[in-house]
Amino acid sequence: MRRDIFQAIADPTRRAIIALLAMQAMTPNGIAEHFDTTRQAISKHLRILTECELLKQEHQGREIFYHLEIQKMKEIDKWLEQFRKLWETRFDQLDDVLSNLQKNKK
Amino acid sequence: MRRDIFQAIADPTRRAIIALLAMQAMTPNGIAEHFDTTRQAISKHLRILTECELLKQEHQGREIFYHLEIQKMKEIDKWLEQFRKLWETRFDQLDDVLSNLQKNKK
DNA sequence: AATTTGCGAAAACAAACGGTTGCATATATA
DNA sequence: TATATATGCAACCGTTTGTTTTCGCAAATT
Known about the structure:
The structure is a homodimer.
Chain A: H1 5-8, H2 12-23, H3 28-32, H4 39-51, E1 55-60, E2 63-68, H5 70-105
Antiparallel strand pairs in A: 1-2
Chain B binds a DNA duplex through helix 4.
C-alpha cells in the first residue's frame, strides 16, 4: 500500500481536513460535521493522514482530538524547492524581456 | 474524471518525470529509457500531466518533445502558503524557547 | 513503394481507492 | 447496572488507477 504525503494530499477531502485542523484540533465527529459524508468515511481519511504522520491523536476520555503535524507539510515544500529556483529564474528572464521592451520604447 | 495537479504529483513515476523534464525537454522514448516500464505506460502519464497543463508538447517531425510548464508548479506552492506562516510561527516559538533556555543558563 | 521508427489510443485486467453498512469496544451518564 | 456516546475496524461495492498488449497512423529511411 502506497502511503506517502503526496498521495495523502491528492484527495480534496483530505486537503480540506488538513486545512480545518490547521486552525484547531478536532474530533472525528466534529470534523465529519463539515462534510457531506459519513463519519466512517472521514475516519478512513484520518487513518491515512495519521499513517503518513500528518496527523497525531490526542486521547481525551472517549474523545480523540486530531491535530496537524505542521512540520510534516514541509516535506512538500522541500520537494518543491528544486523547482522554485527554476520558476524564479524564468521570472527573472521575463523581467529582462519586459525591461528590454521598455528600453526599445524609448 | 478528476484531473488536478495534486492528483498528478501523487504518483512517484510522474514526480520523477517532472524532475526529469525540469532539466530538459524530452521525447516519450527518451523519458521511458529512464524507467522500468513500457513506453505506453509513460505515455499515459504524459497524457495525464499534459491534461492538467503541467507539460506542453512541441512537435518536431515525428518526435514530440515534452517540456515542463514550471509556472504550473506554483499552484502547489500557493496551496502551501496558508501553512507556511503556521510552521514558521512554530519555529519562532521554538526560537523563543531556545533563547530563554540560553538566558536561564547565565 | 516498402519498411522502420516514434507516437497515441483502445481494450483488458489486477490492484487500489473512496464510500457505505454493520459491528465491536471503551468511556461517560442515568 | 443499563444506556447513550465516541470511536475504530472489517466486509463489501462500484469506480478509478497503473500497467501491458495490441493496434493504427504519420514521419523518416531504405
